[in-house]
Specification:
By secondary structure, this protein is of the alpha/beta class. It contains 24 helices and 23 strands. Helices cover 52% and strands 20% of the residues. The strands form four sheets. An eight-stranded mixed β-barrel has the order 15-16-18-19-20-21-22-23, surrounded by five helices. Strands 6-5-9-8-7 form a five-stranded antiparallel beta sheet, sandwiched between helices. It comes from Rhizobium laguerreae.
């Protein structure tokens, strides 16, 4: 390295001399040679002029001796080495030369004509030519110039030598010492320092190098100490630590690893770790390690004594590439944890009461069963079982009795299940059964018969149950697990609607009904958002004079494309989806606003408004909401009639009782709607503050029935209800009056009011207001 640096420096200096000094020196020699050549030419020119005149007379006289003598004189002059004299006639040719034989240089010739002045004038007699050697770069140098050049060369050489010596002493020597220290450090491993002290860059370099060596030496000591500590920690840490190389061979293990596994260090170092893993989990370990950088995997590890433990391996890598991949891994014994996880998993997917799968476990098994059916070329039947009257058992006999019945049911069911079948309790009294078979529909029907036989024997005294079963077959009815469960559920609900206690196979008509229901749900939501709901009004009249005493608000959904939609389905779906509260609030607001408009018509200021309320609408905020609405429109509370059905009162809910009482205290009247249907009981009239009884239209139609027995009983029931209601200060209204005969009969029975198509159809408030206004105007004109 030092020779390279020194040679480069020497080459740089020489290059500088060649580029800058040598051209100047050559130029100086060239100019000096030109000057000397000019001086010689000037001297020879003068000499030729003089000798040409001297030679004129001898040459005229052809005096060869004189010519020779003069030529000898000329050739002896300074730099001239040869003289030639010739006359024009060629009779005389004299040549004198002092050129040594060894001379092989170039000669420069200078000639002059010899003119002789005769009586007839000047005549050219001949010529004289002299020769002198051509001057080189150094030939024309004078002594003082040679001295100057010598001094110049000496100065340049002195500077050149000084630079080389200075470079060697101040640059090369410290670099050699630095190199020697580096080589010694590399070969011996110890930190050598550079012994060089100066205030220049080399001194600072040496100082920095020495500081770096000192710092590195200190860091090496710290690293060695840290390595010893890390080794101690590695071996003393109560964790199973081990390291693998790029070929998955064990390079190191901690003492705790050896203690936990039973191996000794010499026996495992160099072994492939995968060979210590059970064959069942070996591929998992290999694939995970190849695919992931810093893997986390759980495998089964085989100890020296042959026992197997579940271990969680967490690996962190320390390597720059695939060829030098090293890792530090910690291996944790999770045998107990895995066992606990398995127990928790079983508990998570198992129904704690019956021991069957729960919904989560069933959904997971359902996917596997479908895959197994595909692999075996079989079908899969899904039975959705829902118990009938089970809620009644819980409510009347207690939940403990219900749980006992469920356990007994499962025990009876298991007798009929094949090993390939799967049963689950989805929640409450809902169960699902999977039946794989070549002909799954036939197998499902057989199972339904067996399920029906289960319920022939009571589960306890007076505890009789039945079941509604929905059946869906994969792949005929469904292509996915979720679809299979959904369609069996739809089939079960279809059976529930058709009368319960039996089985129903899924068909596409159910899907159509489901789509229709979904469409109704969408229309309800859109109606609430886009204000499609209207509060139609149907007048309630007195039976004796047929004057309007009030109006019943009826919900209508006016679809922008489909027009008015049937309200029964909308109300049913709204109650199932709990949207009836929002719908009811809209109808209540609009109905009260319509009553306020009708109240401006003469004679209508005391009419009342009857509003139907669903059981779901009886929220604690209902009285305050109703009070705010009637207050905003200036309606007296007694003009509002809250219509409730027997279903609201049947369970004697304390909250509903409190809300009804609060509405009554506010001033609203209470009407019991559809009386005579369901679980009718006159005790409601005693337990609740009822003001109006509305007899259901089915009784109205039956009073003139063609069957005498039906007609007679219906009239007796209506007369009895009317009499008792009047005794309890309740007004009686008959619904669904469509004929004059029905009206006369009801009036004769003592009923107060009626409503129906005979008098008025439900109408939009605007149309009704126009009719009432026109009617009042006609009455006014007539009077």
């Amino acid at each position: 390295m030092n020779n390279s640096v020194e040679n480069r420096f020497f080459a740089i200096v020489c290059g500088a001399l060649l580029v800058f000094v040598a051209p100047l020196f050559v130029l100086f020699l060239f100019l000096s040679s030109e000057r000397a050549d000019k001086e010689i030419r000037d001297h020879i020119s003068v000499l030729l002029v003089a000798n040409a005149q001297a030679l004129a007379k001898p040459l005229w006289d052809l005096d060869e001796d004189s010519v020779t003598q003069i030529s000898a004189t000329v050739v002896s002059q300074g730099a001239i080495v040869k003289v030639e004299v010739r006359d024009q006639s060629g009779q005389l040719d004299v040549s004198q030369s002092t050129i040594p034989r060894s001379f092989d240089g170039k000669l420069v010739q200078v000639s002059r004509a010899i003119i002789y002045n005769t009586i007839d004038g000047p005549k050219n007699l001949g010529s004289i030519s002299v020769y002198y050697p051509a001057l080189g770069l150094f030939s024309g140098l004078k002594q003082e110039e040679v001295v100057f050049i010598s001094i110049f060369i000496f100065a340049v050489l002195t500077v050149f030598g000084t630079a080389l010596i200075g470079n060697r002493f101040f640059v090369i020597q410290p670099l050699m010492r630095l190199t020697a220290a580096i080589e010694a450090t590399r070969q011996l491993g110890s930190r050598h320092h550079v012994d060089w002290q100066s205030n220049d860059e080399m001194g600072r370099l040496a100082h920095s190098f020495n500081e770096m060596q000192t710092k590195l030496e200190s860091e090496e000591k710290e690293l060695k100490l840290a390595h010893r500590r890390a080794t101690d920690i590695y071996n003393l840490t109560p964790a199973m630590l081990f390291s693998l190389d790029e070929e998955d061979r064990i390079t190191a293990v901690s003492d705790y690893w050896l203690l936990a596994t039973g191996y000794n260090r010499a026996a495992v170092i160099g072994r492939n770790f995968a060979n210590l893993v059970t064959p069942a989990t070996r591929d998992k370990f290999v694939k995970r390690r190849q695919a992931e950088s810093g893997m986390t995997v759980t495998v089964k590890f085989v100890c020296l004594d042959g026992r197997t433990m579940d271990v969680l391996i967490m690996e962190s890598e320390a390597g720059a590439g695939a060829q030098d991949r090293l890792s530090l891994s910690v291996m944790t014994d999770v045998t107990e944890l895995k066992a606990s996880e398995d127990r928790n998993h079983r508990q998570a997917i198992t129904d704690h009461l019956t021991g069957l799968l729960n919904r989560q476990g069933f959904e997971a098994v359902l996917d596997n069963k479908i895959a197994a059916a595909d692999a075996a070329g079989q079908e899969l039947a899904c039975l959705f079982v829902d118990l009938d009257r089970f809620k009644w058992i819980n409510d009347n006999m207690g939940h403990a009795a219900g749980d006992t019945a469920l356990v007994e049911l499962v025990e009876r069911l298991k007798i009929h299940l094949a090993p390939s079948d799967e049963a689950a309790r989805l929640g409450g009294d809902e169960f699902a059964i999977l039946l794989p078979a070549k002909d799954a529909e036939t197998r499902a029907k057989v199972m339904c018969e067996q399920i029906a036989s289960i319920f022939e024997t009571p589960f306890a005294p007076d505890m009789h149950l039945s079941a509604s079963v929905g059946i869906a077959i994969y792949p005929h009815h469904a292509a996915t697990a979720a679809e299979l469960l959904q369609k069996s559920d739809m089939a079960m609900y279809a059976k529930k609607r058709d009368g319960k206690n039996g089985a129903q196979l899924f068909d596409n008509a159910m899907l159509d009904r489901a789509r229709s229901r979904a469409e109704i749900e969408a229309n309800i939501e859109a109606g609430l958002i886009d204000n499609w709901f209207e509060a139609f009004l149907q007048p309630i009249v007195t039976l004796n004079g047929r004057g309007i005493s009030g109006f019943e608000a009826l919900m209508r959904l006016n679809h922008p494309q489909k027009g008015l939609m049937p309200p029964a389905e909308i109300i049913s779906v709204a109650e199932e989806t709990a949207k009836i509260v929002r719908v009811g609030n809209v109808i209540m607001e609009k109905a009260v606003a319509n009553l306020a408009k009708i109240s401006r018509i003469p004679g209508m200021q005391d009419t009342y408004l009857a509003i139907n309320f669903s059981p779901l609408q009886f929220e604690p905020a209902l009285p305050a909401r109703l009070a705010a609405i009637v207050g905003r429109h200036g309606i007296r509370p007694e003009r509002i009639v809250v219509e409730i059905t027997e279903a609201v009162l049947m369970h004697d809910n304390p909250q509903i009782r409190l809300i009804v009482t609060e509405l009554r205290r506010f001033g609203c009247r209470i009407a019991l709607d559809d009386f005579g249907t369901g679980y009718s009981s006159l005790s409601y009239l005693n337990r609740f503050p009822v003001d109006i009884i509305k007899i259901d239209q089915s009784f109205t139609r039956a009073i003139n029935d063609g069957d005498d027995d039906v007609r007679q009983k219906s009239r007796m029931l209506i007369e009895g209800i009317t009499t008792l209601s009047h005794k309890m200060n309740c007004t009686v209204i008959a619904e669904g009056i469509e004929t004059e005969e029905e009206c006369r009969t009801l009036h004769q029975m003592g009923l107060d009011y009626g409503q129906g198509y005979l008098f008025h159809r439900p109408q939009h408030a605007t149309t009704l207001i126009e009719e009432l206004t026109a009617s009042q105007s006609a009455i006014a004109r007539a009077s």
